Every structure is written in C-alpha cells, then in structure tokens.
Amino acid sequence: MTTASAFEPLISSAWGQPQSWTLEHYRQRGGYESLKKTLEMAPAAIIDEVKKSNLRGRGGAGFPTGLKWSFVPKDNPKPKYLTVNADESEPGTFKDRYILSLDPHMMLEGIAIAAYALGVHTCYIYMRGEFKHPAERTQAAIQEAYKAGIFGKTLLGKDFELNCYLVRGAGAYICGEETALLESLEGKKGWPRLKPPFPAVVGLFGSPTVINNVETLSNVPHIFARGADWYSKLGTEKSGGTRLVCLSGTVNRPGVYEIPLQTTVSELIFGDTYGRGLPEGRSVKAVIPGGSSAPVLSPNELDVALEFEALRLKQTMAGSGGVIVMDDTSCMVRCLWRVARFYAEESCGQCTPCREGTPWQTRLLRKIEEGRGEMADLEMLSHVASSIAPYPPMGLGNTICALGDAAALPTHSFLMRFRAEFEAHIHEKRCPFGDKPWGAFGDWS
Amino acid sequence: MAEPLFTPEEQKKFDAGIAEILSHYPPDRKSAGMLPALRLLQDLKGWCPPEGIRLVAKNLEVTPERAYEVATFYVMYHLKKPGKYTIDVCTNLSCSLRGAEKMLAYLEGKLGLKAGEANEKFTLRETECLASCGTAPCLQVNEDHHENLTKARVDELLAKLT
User: Fold this and answer.
1) pLDDT tens for residues A327-355?
2) Which of A8, A230, A355, A381 is most buried, judged by most C-beta within 10 A?
3) B75 and A322: CB-CB below 8 Å?
4) Chain B residues whose beta carbon lies within 8 Å of the beta carbon of residue A292
5) Distance CA A46, CA A52 (A)
6) Residues in CB range of A57: below 8 A, 6 or more apart
7) Using the beta-carbon criterion (under 8 Å), do A132 and B134 form an inter-chain contact?
8) Sequence-separated (6 or more) residues with CB below 8 Å from residue A437
C-alpha cells in the first residue's frame, strides 16, 4: 500500500520544471535508460514484464496493456502498427494535454519500447486537431528523437527501424474510439468498425495494430526502470502504478493530479494536496467520476477509490479519469442537458439509435429545463435513453460503438439519482434555479 | 479565365507538403493522407475551397466525392471563408460550471454576433470540449488556446485582435 504522504509521482514528476519537454531534460532524469534495458531483452519477455506490472489502459476502458500486446499474432506476414490515441476529448478529461506539452519524451520512450516488443516499425500518434500547442511540443520531441538516433533507421544503435509520425485530427470526438481512429488515420470519416475482428488482428490498413493511450505508454518506461513487481505494488491488486485524474467543476483547486489508486473521490475533492474543497457555504450535490459518460455519484457515495474495480462496484466507471464536481446550487437538468448536447453533436450518425436518440434526449432536456416539460417527457426521456443503451448493464447497447452507451448512461443515472429535480422543473413550469443554474462559479466576471 | 487557386509560392508549399505527407504512408495507401492534406490546404488558403478539395483528391488519387465526404465530416475544416479570427468557446459541463455560458453571452454582446454567426473579422462558435476543463472557462482563437478567462482577460484578448 502506498500512502499519500510517501507517494512519489511517476508521470507528472517533471511538470513545472523549466524545459521539462526537451530531450536534454528527459535524459538528465534517466530518460531512455529503460529503452536501453529492453533492447537487451527478448520481445516476449518485455510483454511478460508489462503483463506482470498490471498496467491497465488509461484511455477509458482499463483493459490490461500486456494482454492487449499479446493479442498481436506472431505469424501474420503483414506489417504491424502501433497507434497512439492522443484524441483526448471527453468532457472532464484533460490529462493528455499536460503529458504531450510537458513531457512528450516519456510517451516516446514508451512508444519505442512497445514498438520493439511488438515488432512494429511504424507508429502513428493520432492527436486531436484542437491541440495546437501540444502538437508543436510533441512534433519537436519527435524531431529530437530522430536526431538523437532514437527513431529512424536504427533504434538507439540497434538494427531496428522505427518511424514515428504525428497525425492531427480535425475535430471529431468519435475518433477517440479506436476503430473510428483507424478509419480517420486511413483518411476517411470517423465511422467506427464492427468488432470482431479486433484491431490487434485486423487494424490499420488491414494489418495487426495496437492502440494505446498517451498515459498508458508514458507508464511503460517506469515499469522497466524499477521492475514490474515494484510497479504493480504501487497500485491495487488488479491495477498497477499510479493514475492521473482530472478535477474540474465547482472545486477550489481544479487541475490534473497524480494519485495513488487507493485515493477516494472524497479525498480528491476535499484533500489539501488536491481540490481543497468547495467555496465556503457550498456542498457537493453530484460528482461524475470518470469523464462525462460515467454515471453520476450522489454525495453519500464519495467514499470510493478512484480505481477501476471499486467504481465498477458502484455501477459507474473510472473511465478516462475526469472527475467533475457540481455543488448544491447547480441545476441537474441543465448539467445533463450540456452533457447530452455533447453526444448529440459528436454522434457520427452511423447507427440510428444514436443518431436519432442523442438529439432527441437533448430536445427533451431543453424542454424540461425551460419549464415546458410534462411528466410524459420524463418517461419518454428514459425510453429514448434505453433505446440507445439499456441500464444496466453497461457496454451492451444497441450501437456499433460505445458512444451510444456513453450518451445513455448519464441520462439513466441522473434520472435515477435526481428525479425529484426533474419533476420540480415540470411542476413549477420553470427551472427552480432561475438564471443561476451553474453553482458557485457560474456567475462569471 | 478563373484565377489560379495558389500563388506560385503557395503551389510550391502545397507540392512539398503533399510529398512529405505521402512519405508517411505505404505507397498503395495515398488516400490515408487526406486529413493532413486538407489541413495543408486550409493552412495555405485560410479555408478549404471546392477547387482545393478537388486538388487534394487528385493528389491522393481518390474521387472528389471521397474528399468531400471527409471535409464535411470534421468540424475543423472551413468550407466557407471564415472571418479573420475564428473564436471557439467551450460551453461543455466543466466550462459552464465556471461561467462559460456567461462568457459566451459577453462575447456575443461585444462582437455583435450570435454563436454560429460570422462577419468579415470574426466567426464566433460554440464548441464541445477543448480538453481544458481544469482551466475553465476557455476559448481558442484560430487554434490558439486561452484559459482561466475573466472579463478583463477577454477584453484584453479582443483588443489584440486587429
């Protein structure tokens, strides 16, 4: 067990230091030493070590990384690809922006280790189009790595060619879904593919492809710096290492925090090291614990670790680490309307339940928020959400990809936990919060 | 005769850019360069004019329809000539909890535009999440990111946009 006081950050350790994004700074901190070590190892042994570390994907699904790597077929004659998902776009999530801007070499070292282990000679980093500054920093780091002989014809002097290219998206949240990302990388609109086949077998250009999140790959060098046993012990039984969480909304000190996985939602919001609570006189009404798609928690549910298994037991999810806090004067209908609008805007339109259902949810919520709602609208809202994805279970919706689930889950959970507030809008024929629906910081000045 | 799309200088940059983009993909996968090629076009012209999209299609050896399909799917490609400055204001949940709706209303008043409208100088848009929730409210001016915005900082920013 790691206690908060003895806690040593891995991913964010250099943030705030001058020039932390440069190769020189990264090398001074022992950068690329793990890559040197792994180049002495057999690829299968590298994958085993990652498996032993209990590293789980940090993009949202929490899938074990070593296991994902082991799915790549050894006997397929086609070239293999590594793709980095840097398409961070889920409301509440903003951690990759910091890694890409402040310590891109940590991710590049993870890429090099993964590529060598997987026999990959080409890596594409797919980054959201809006990230101009992070893209500039990452591109500069890639160029430094080429110049230093890390990428290129040889991998740190070893006879292993590795090329790494940065590709920028053009404003589509759906391209963070791994198969939509591949479509986009192939130069098409981002329509998710049916699975199976999974990308590890049939991915980019029809070839075996591993897709990892920015934070996931940034963890890889640390596993080899001090060993898988050490790394796995930092976390919980089923999840190794530390975690970046993104705290936003009505808290005194929002930001990205690297935490031990045992940290609870409550500690994150109120702890001195982290959020330092809410403005005076305000209390928590609701918390989204893992990005806007994660079912919302009530104030009496906050004593739960920000960890995949623990949050699943509460019928929500750790997702991409986006914790959004709403105070007691925030309007839950208005909050859900904002979330619903996002999914309606970002639905790719391929599946009818999602294409039609997400704007339908938005229209109903707007009607209720504006005081024009009827009780039948609440039943209809619930029905529309169920048509996109029933609740529970999670992850078994009526659409090709999980965007449908992501759009329906917040609706189900807000209705379940805050139904009285929806009914009050209907009975009073107005928003009970009037023109101040956004809580402590909503009165911008 | 219609004016050529590119000046000789732009043509040179376009050709070099396309060659660089194509070098990142297998030779039989030229069409994979679609997103970067459209970005290159937009960087050169400020938007993606129809003849430019057709030129991208030609260079990537795909039909113009295929290039249009991509250009219309993604929100960052301007299919109409935008104002000199495109202001994208994030109004998603975390930003709205910290005043983004009021900031947008303030900008609408200052610019005399509703979200979604444009004049010669400005295009004002409401956008869905800029992944900067911890430093809300935020906006982007032509992809340049600005965060932790107050009224005073918005005023300062607008004053710089001439």
Assistant:
1) 999 999 999 999 999 999 999 999 999 99
2) A381
3) no
4) 92-93
5) 10
6) A63, A64, A65, A68, A212, A213, A216
7) no
8) A330, A331, A334, A369, A431
Determine whether the interchain pair B31/A186 forms a contact, defined as Cβ–Cβ distance below 8 Å.
Answer: yes
A187-237 tens-digit pLDDT:
999 999 999 999 999 999 999 999 999 999 999 999 999 999 999 999 888
ipTM score for this prediction: 0.96
Q: Do residues A200 and A219 touch, judged by C-beta distance below 8 A? A: no
Please tell me the predicted confidence (pLDDT) of residue A7: 83
DSSP state of B1: -
Q: Across-strand partners of A248?
A: A324
The tens digit of pLDDT for each residue in A264-309 reads 999 999 999 999 999 999 999 999 999 999 999 999 999 999 988 8
CA-wise closest residue to A124 among A177, A164, A182: A164
CA dist B104 and B92 (Å) reads: 12
As a 3-state breakdown, chain B gives helix, strand, coil percent values, each rounded to 5, of 50, 10, 35
Under a CB-based contact definition with an 8 Å cutoff, are residues B128 and B143 in contact? no
pTM above 0.90, yes or no: yes
Reduced to 3 states (helix: H, G, I; strand: E, B; else coil), residue A158 is strand
> Is A250 in Cβ contact with B92 (below 8 Å)?
no
Res. A2 pLDDT band, cuts 50 70 90: very low
Strands (E) across chain B are located at: 85-90, 122-127, 139-141, 144-146
Structure-token pair, residue A78: 């086609």
Which residue out of A12, A130, A246, A256 would a mutagenesis test of the B interface target, given it has the greatest number of B Cβ atoms within 10 Å?
A130
Check CB contact under 8 Å for B99 and A444: yes
A contacts of B75 (beta carbons < 8 Å): 170-172
